Amino acid sequence: MAKPDHEKLYQTAEQQSGYFTAEQAQQAGLSDPLLSYHAKTGQFVRVRRGIYRLSRFPGSPHEDLFVAWLHAGPDAVISHESALAVYELSDVLPGEVHVIVRRTASRRRQGVRLHTNRLSSDEITRRAGLPVTSVARTIADVAAAGLAEEQVYQAIQEALRWGLVTREALLAHAMSRGGRASRLMRHAMGQDGSR
User: Fold this and answer.
1) Tens digits of per-residue pLDDT, 70-101?
2) CA of 5: how far to CAs of 26, 43, 129, 195, in Å?
3) If DSSP codes are grouped into helix, strand and coil, which group holds residue 23?
């Protein structure tokens, strides 16, 4: 096994708000016994099976999202109601963590809802150390998925008020989705003649 590269592990974890997987630790040359040793001595905090955090980083209020994302794989993206929570655009408390994964992903996890939608690079951003769908994509997704209308309207109003998205971007995403997403977005912005 390669010599442990603590700096490589730190750089990986730093980009993930201090969190890392056992596999990422192994890629940095840390064996399972060395990983266990660091957890026992307090340098690493074992969060869940196979998920750790560097102890010098504080725990995240979104720890459940980090766990779900790291378990789902590096190409996974936090989405739907979970992304709304990261952006603080709604007071919805999701019962599951929503994650978009590649179509080939087949990992099932309790408390995690996997979606296999395609994402373009402009629909992904990073927030609080997590890859999340863009605000416009998030709102279009929850509108299309059936989130209560008042929650969708709240998310739209907050996102516009905080300058997180433009009206044009919201409408473009909603129109590309069609159906309920388009109807709700147009209504919320007075584009349907109702306001």
Assistant:
1) 988 888 999 999 999 999 998 887 789 999 98
2) 10, 15, 22, 60
3) helix
Angle at 173 between CA 172 and CA 179, to 5 degrees: 105
With H, G, I as helix, E, B as strand and everything else as coil, classify residue 40. Answer: helix
CA gap 178, 125 in Å, rounded: 23
Cα separation of 114 and 98, whole Å?
6
**pLDDT tens digits, residue range 96-148?**
999 998 765 555 666 777 777 788 999 999 998 899 999 999 999 999 988 99
pLDDT tens-digit series, residues 18-66 = 999 999 999 999 999 999 999 999 999 999 999 999 999 998 899 999 9
pTM of the model: 0.85
Quote the longest CA-to-CA distance of the chain. 67
- Scanning 128-166, the segments in alpha helix (DSSP H) are 135-145, 149-161
Q: Report, in this order, helix, strand and coil percent for the chain, each rounded to 5.
A: 45, 15, 40
Q: Is 130 helix (H, G, I), strand (E, B) or coil?
A: strand
